[in-house]
Amino acid sequence: MGKRSVYFFVLVGTFVGVSLTQCATEEQVRADILQKTPIGIDMNQVMAFCASQKLVCKSSNTAGYLNQHTSKIVGVKSVWTVISEQRLTPLTITTKSCFWGFDKDGRLIDVWVWKTTDAP
């Protein structure tokens, strides 16, 4: 196999990997996040994970997050971020956000990934 073929396969492999990440379901993204930030870790460790991934994470030491699917507040502390944004057309944007909920001691109790699409 020549250099051109190797470069082509590397390019295709990279594109497919990026496409799978962009197209991953909420459950797949949640599973990946839980591998990197498992239940029970400290809130500061989640913030360090965010920094290592260059994610802009916000946090609250006084409120959990509202899981829109269950209509329940999760935790008494929280961290949240936008994982990705993708414009499918000039008028639509799909956003994947991640929410981490913590107990009173700052230990992770749940993770929720929410995918939304805004369109006119």
Could you list the spans in which at least 5 consecutive residues all have pLDDT below 50? 3-21
Structural class comes to alpha+beta
The helicity comes to 25-40%
Q: Within the largest sheet, what's the order of strands? A: 1-4-5-6
Radius of gyration: 17 Å
Q: What can be said about the biggest beta sheet?
A: 4 strands, antiparallel
Order of helices and strands: HHHEEEEEE
- The domain tally reads 1
Helical segment tally? 3
Gap between N and C termini, in Å?
49 Å
- Average pLDDT works out at 85
Can you describe this structure?
Strands 1-4-5-6 form a 4-stranded antiparallel beta sheet, covered by helices on one side. It has a two-stranded antiparallel ribbon with strand order 2-3. 17% of the residues are buried. Strand 2 and strand 3 (72-74) form a beta hairpin. Mean pLDDT is 85; it is low at 3-21. It has 120 residues and is of the alpha+beta class. Helices cover 35% and strands 37% of the residues. It has one domain (26-118).
